[in-house]
Every structure is written in structure tokens, then in C-alpha cells.
Specification:
- GO terms for molecular function: CDP-diacylglycerol-glycerol-3-phosphate 3-phosphatidyltransferase activity.
- It comes from Paenibacillus xerothermodurans.
- This protein catalyzes the committed step to the synthesis of the acidic phospholipids.
- The chain crosses the membrane at residues 69-94, 114-134, 140-161.
- Helix content is 82%, strand content 0%.
- α2 (28-51) packs antiparallel against α5, α3 (57-80) runs antiparallel to α4 (86-108) and α4 (86-108) runs parallel beside α6 (141-175).
- The chain is built from 6 helices and no strands.
- The protein is globular.
- The chain has one domain: CDP-alcohol phosphotransferase transmembrane (TM) domain (Four Helix Bundle (Hemerythrin (Met), subunit A)), CATH 1.20.120.
């Protein structure tokens, strides 16, 4: 259960209050660097887990939870500082909360969950990019954010289809 990738994931959880403290102290750009550090730990833990055969069920469940929890903290900080609209925050929150709750329900019912795929990772990178644009006040940053929100919902639909297919195949195989 405890290996380097899982420890990096735990570190990502620990970076959430650091991000919030730095952001709430008014150091928004420094807070983005904390967020970037969290993103780097995400990339590292996945790379190490896959290349060194250290993928665990615990890590597979904890990793997306760390990602979603960090994103929810970021969403809340941006909406309360009025850097993004409530509408954008609600859309992002609903999508992430739905993914967390859905994964937890399926996991505890003994269903297989779908591991992160290219679209999920791309969505995360695009969210980081949109947040960068917002924090550094680039033109059209909010338009970019809404495009990423739309992509994130598309990614969720893809995950739902993959989940259904994976568990349908398991049911068919178990009936044989």
C-alpha cells in the first residue's frame, strides 16, 4: 500500500492547505506555483507507478481523489476571490463532485473503476492552463475556462461509457 507514488499522492493532499494559506494571504501567483508543484507530483506519481510496476488499488483510488480535492480547493479560492464566476465554479464543482461520488459508490459496490485516460489527463492539463490564464489575467481567460469546462464534461461522458463497458464485460465473463 505505501510506496513512493502513494506518498507523492499524500503530499498532494498536504499541498491543499498550503495552497489555500498562500492564496488567502494574497499571494495568488505564489499559490499558483503551489498548484503547479501539486501537478508535478501528480505526473511523477503516475510515471513512477507505471514504469516501476507500483500501481496499487489504493493509489488508483487516492490519486484522482487528490486531484479532485485540489481542484475543488482551487475552484473555491477563485470564486470567493471573484476571479471566476459562480456559474463556472458550480459547473466545475458539479463535474468533480460527481466524479468523486460516482467513483466511490462504484468502488464500494465492488465494481471496477476506469483508470485515468488520455482525455482525463488532458482535461487536467487544460484546467491548469485556464487557471494560469485567469491568475495572470490574460485576455479571453474566462472563455478558455468555459471551453475546458465543456471538454471536462465530454471527458466525463467518455469515462461513463468506458465504465459501463468494463463492468458489462466483467458481468458477461462472470456468467460464463
Amino acid at each position: 500500500m505505501w510506496n513512493l507514488p502513494n506518498l507523492l499522492t499524500v503530499c498532494r493532499f498536504l499541498l491543499i492547505p498550503v495552497y489555500l494559506l498562500v492564496f488567502s494571504a494574497g499571494h495568488v501567483k505564489a499559490a499558483f506555483l503551489v498548484l503547479l508543484l501539486a501537478g508535478i507530483t501528480d505526473v511523477l506519481d503516475g510515471y513512477i507507478a507505471r514504469t516501476r510496476n507500483l500501481v496499487t488499488q489504493f493509489g488508483s483510488m487516492l490519486d484522482p481523489l487528490a486531484d479532485k480535492t485540489m481542484m475543488i480547493a482551487v475552484i473555491l479560492s477563485l470564486v470567493f476571490s471573484e476571479m471566476i464566476s459562480w456559474q463556472a465554479a458550480i459547473a466545475m464543482f458539479l463535474r468533480d463532485a460527481g466524479m468523486i461520488i460516482g467513483s466511490a459508490i462504484f468502488h464500494f459496490r465492488g465494481k471496477q473503476t476506469v483508470p485515468a485516460n488520455v482525455m482525463g489527463k488532458l482535461t487536467t492539463v487544460l484546467y491548469y492552463f485556464a487557471i494560469l490564464l485567469i491568475i495572470f489575467e490574460f485576455p479571453y481567460a474566462h472563455v478558455c475556462l468555459w471551453i475546458v469546462i465543456a471538454i471536462s464534461f465530454l471527458t466525463s461522458i467518455i469515462y461513463i461509457y468506458q465504465f459501463a463497458g468494463l463492468n458489462r464485460n466483467d458481468e458477461v465473463n462472470s456468467q460464463r
